[in-house]
Predict the structure.
Amino acid sequence: MVGRYDPFGTCTQCGDRILWVKTKAGKNMPVNPELINYKAVPGGKERIVTPEGLVVAGEKCSVDEAEGCGYISHFATCARK
């Protein structure tokens, strides 16, 4: 198929499946494809990338506490970093 866009790929370092999300800065960022709930925390240890491409400092949380959902950057979890 010509012109078919597939946002999924494979990490060339560890072989895990990744999802590509375009950040607000216009760059493609590899993220783990599992959607997680998060709450924003200034200086939070996690960098969550929203489906819209916003990078948020925060932490994973339960659905009851969640301010939104997003993805964890694959750079943070890649087995071969």
Remarks:
- The chain has a mean pLDDT of 91.
- The longest strand covers residues 17-22.
